[in-house]
Amino acid sequence: MVFAHRDPSINPIVGFTQGLLRITRDGNGVEHVLTSQGFPLARVESLGAPPTLGPRMAPGTSMSLADVRGRIVSALAQAHKQ
User: Fold this and answer.
1) What is the C-alpha to C-alpha distance for residues 81 and 66, in angstroms, rounded to an integer?
2) Is the distance from CB of 25 to CB of 15 less than 8 angstroms?
3) How far is it, in rounded angstroms, from Cα 58 to Cα 39?
4) Where are the domains of the chain?
5) pLDDT tens readout for residues 20-42
6) How far is residue 3's CA from residue 36's CA, in Å, rounded to a whole number?
7) Which end of the chain has fewer beta carbons closer than 10 Å to its terminal beta carbon, N or C?
8) What Cα–Cα distance (Å) separates residue 7 from each residue in 2, 12, 14, 79, 81?
């Protein structure tokens, strides 16, 4: 998953590697989100935080891709209401 700027910039990825996430699939076919460094994403709000402070959870656990998408859609809907 890539978060990118529309306008030209030195690096179109938001926050350089902070806007770059890995997607993995577990044995049940559920897609999970990892940081670009491979740490499980615990919550969307932790994006951009140092790995020791934000995104880590228990090994092997992370937000599902569906949860991350839902949180983003919800945040965008809230932003458009304001």
Assistant:
1) 23
2) no
3) 10
4) 16-81
5) 888 999 899 999 998 888 888 88
6) 12
7) C
8) 15, 8, 11, 20, 24
- Tokens linked to 65: 């891709």
Q: Is residue 79 classed as helix, strand or coil in its secondary structure?
A: helix
Amino acid at site 2 = V
Spell out the per-residue pLDDT of the chain, length 82, in tens. 877 777 777 766 666 666 788 899 989 999 999 888 888 888 877 776 665 554 444 455 788 999 988 988 888 888 888 7
* Length of the chain (residues): 82
The residue written with tokens 């999970």 in the block is 32
From the number of C-beta atoms within 10 Å of its C-beta (0-12, 13-18, 19+), residue 2 rates as exposed
Start-end of H helices in 1-82: 65-81
**CA R_g for the chain:** 13
